[in-house]
Design goal:
- The complex is a heterotrimer of chains A (370), B (306) and C (366).
- Chain A is of the alpha/beta class.
- Chain A is built from 11 helices and 17 strands.
- In chain A, strand 8, helix 8 and strand 9 form a beta-alpha-beta unit.
- In chain A, helix 5 packs parallel to helix 6.
- Chain A starts with a helix and ends with a strand.
- Chain B has a single domain, classed as Orthogonal Bundle (ABC transporter involved in vitamin B12 uptake, BtuC), CATH 1.10.3470.
- In chain B, strands 1-2 form a two-stranded antiparallel sheet.
- The longest helix of chain B is centred in the first third of the chain and has 34 residues.
- Chain C has 366 residues and is mostly helical.
- Chain C has a domain of 215 residues.
- The longest helix of chain C has 32 residues.
- The radius of gyration of chain C is 22 Å and the shape is globular.
- In chain C, 57% of the residues are buried.
- Chains in contact: A-B, A-C, B-C.
- At the B-C interface, helix 4, helix 10, helix 12 and helix 13 of B face helix 5, helix 6, helix 11 and helix 13 of C.
Amino acid sequence: MNDFKISRRNFVKSTAAGAAGLATLGLPTMASAAGLTIGIVYVGPRDDFGWNQAHAEAAKVLGTLPDVTVVEEESVPETIAVSKSMESMINLDDAKMIFATSFGYYKPFVLDLAAKKPDVQFRHAAPLWTDADPKNAGSYFGYLDQAHYVDGVAAGLSTTTNKLGFVAAKPIGTVLRNINSFLLGAKKVNPDATVQVIFTGEWSLPVREAEATNALVNADCDVITCHVDSPKVVIETAEGRGVKTCGHNASQAPLAPKGFITGAEYKWSTIYTGYAADLAAGKPLPNFIGAGFDKDFVQNTGYGAGASPAAIAAADAARAEVKAGKPIFAGPIMKQDGSVLVGAGKSLDNYDPMLDQTDFLIEGVVGSIT
Amino acid sequence: MDDGSLATVLLAMFAGAIRVSTPFLFVSLGECLTEKSGRINLGLEGTLVFGAMSGYALSFHTGSPWIGVLGAGVVGVLFGAIHGYLCKLPKVNDIAIGIALMLFGTGAAFFFGKAYIQPQAARLPSISFGGWSDDSAVQQALEINPLFIIGFFLAVAMWWAFKNTRWGLIVRTTGDSTAAAVALGINVDRVRLIATSVGGFFAGVGGSFLSLSYPGSWSEGLSSGQGLMAVALVIFARWNPLACFEAAILFGAAGALGPALQSVGISQGYHFFNAAPYIMTLGILIVAVSPKRSLKGAPAELSITK
Amino acid sequence: MADITDTAAPVTSDTVARLKRSAEFVVMPAAALLLSAILFSIFLLILGKSPVQFFELLWRGGFGTWFSWQNTFIRASPLMLTALCVAIPARLGMVVIGGEGALTMGGFAAAAIAIPMISWAPTFLLLGVMVIASAIAGGIWMGIVGAVRHYRGVNETISSLLLFYIAVSILNFFVEGALRDPSDPNKPSTMPIGKENMIGNIPGTDVHWGLIFGILLCIVLYFVMNRTTFGFAARITGGNLRAAQAQGLPVGKLILISCAIAGAAAGLAGFFEIAAIHGKANASLVAGYGFTGILVSFLARHNPLVIIPVAIFLGGIAASGGLIQRRMDLPDATVLVLQGLIFVILLVSETLYGRFAIFRLKEATS
């Protein structure tokens, strides 16, 4: 891979002038005509120890395919810049496949460019693609709330105050869904459990994340989890306060040698490896893939010192149930405003499209969206 | 809000005042010294960020957080000296150079900091003053970092030195009137170079507090404008180091307000509570500053008060 | 600013002297850029990267193909408007760094005022109202900076920065709250104005009309600042506040109007972000154009005409940044380092103006 890149770079260098002329005429450049070039865009730095790093590490598998070149660009904001970055990959690097890994890239940027470049495949990391969208676009997503649900089960058996704390970035659908599922997991084993949430307002704001963690611990929460871009600060601060923690996005187990219970992680490698296999076999990529434990798209971090045997047993059992399709949202569940979300005896499927539109917190969550 | 919630919020603000204020304190003391000599250095934001990164990196490699703190200070001296040297050239504007160095310092810190986002470096230990209480929130609030204490004594020492030492007099004279300073045989450029360099040292140390104590980790989002806010702090502290200490405390407390209110269930409009430090600063500036009388304590050579 | 000089007004009737003097304003920045390039090359060599490849890619990604040019133009257009937000107050000696806040408020106002009109208003009316709203909102936002400066003596650098943070919290508060479009739970945004209401591109290009508007506004404001009584009075005030007051110039009015114009320019940048790119207001509106605009304005020495090429130059650097990342395996911060370096060196080059005899006639210097 490395050798390949270097030789390719020299080749590009030696033909830069000629290639520039060709591109002006709209002809494909020669730089990578032999194989497939895949472009990947990230919204933040690739080594942020969070969302972007998880993608970048998993996507490395694509680069190991023979004849495939991966070009990557980090810290691309969700503005016209991402549209132009993707188009630049297509026009200047001859990329035929683009992975856009941030939520806000999809509409309008991926959709518009997909319509403009019908011979390029686009895949976007969020459950957004529908039949009405261009056929050369698509979505891939892991339903992390299933892993947060299992976290919640373990947390529910680890708390003595029955108060769990959740440091959240912004009140958007996926975050709210994770909070709700975390509480449902805790309530399954501990009906008295509540989840207190504090929104920091930004995806990455370490000082406020630390303040929020301290505020939650001061409010008697004795298990802390989070949904922010880089959970390092939250986990370290909570460990310093002597409370237990559940991780998010990547393994934070080494950061909390005493209190770490388990964590919710995407397993992007399953998805990217699957794509790589399809590409190697010459198969078209599916337009939509989304799954949880059932297809190994999400996982829990290995148990840490904070996990009691009872918590481990209950969490393992809960994971097996969800994997087999047992619904997380089993009634009766009320929303915060007192209205009924799921009636008694009823349930929502774990992939119910309604849950993709989560704009509410459920009863038992302390803290409001606005 | 009932009494219990009020007590929680007040305790959180007290704790926040100590935890969050230290970088503000160090940067504002550095800026205070620089401005007292007649120059303004907006580049301290870049110094802070670069100090945070290099302090963390040094602590990671040597295992000693105090070497990290010192290293961050030395790097700060370097940035300060560049600013001090460039600004003595004719027609070079100190505010503009500051903005440029802010961009450069931040960019360089991000560039070299990539490798240090994930590893854990040794952090500065805190001193526990809260052993007498059995409330964990009180104990945490009284986990006081030695840098905070050093910062407090530094503020007192600077306040005393400005008043009572020859060096203090030289710096003040330089800041108040270049002509008078020259007449007294003071090398104005050298005084400003030294003042800016030492100011840079403080700012670098302030940055290392962010990465080595609280929140205690290096990442690109670490500073949310603390270095720039410190400039505002100096203005409403009226160039008095003791008032800088008070202002930094106030600012730290305001920063703790947003999460603390959410923790007692007041979350409506949390964006505004989170913006409290900025709203408060603007409000204080509007009320406290007046064009009718010249600012008491303001160095007359300072471009922003001219 | 200590030395706001008029770059275009004739200082002497002697054509040769004028040409020589103008040459200085071309040669000096060029030399400064060259020095930046050399220093940055050394930096790259230390890292084991090829400077030749870097500058080749910089050229190719920013200017080497028609696509690259369009990419550059798109990135340059908001920079022109946000740079004006720095340049106009700079003529009065004010350093405003919070243009991002005026952009945010302008974009937010445009999107907010559109919401009740989307269902019935024809496109021209909707866009017209949005333009006015964004200019007014941006103008008021910077007007506050001017007002607290004039009436309360609050430093404009600080107040504009504080107002930026406050603007972002206002945007987030409404976008995540009262004005949130419930149909999109995953990216809190206002109601979209609809594709049919969006401003299109300049025919034959991918570049939206904001570019033309930015260029025109730069030209207009150049004439306002250099050829009108208002601009003349502003420059005198910037040169010496006390003298301006002594002459009875309405300093307060000048400060307020300049700040309002500046804010309106940045607010319009917000309008184009909404009406040409996003179609709705959300947190992506805060993308840093206001801060890059500071750099553009200083590099252009606050001359509205010079802002046009400088914005295109920096737009080109931004446009090629991705290609450089991809091909050379350099992190995103590389471009920041380069920008910082150019900024510092160009500012330092100020000190050399007037030092070289070659740019002066003997008579002119005596």
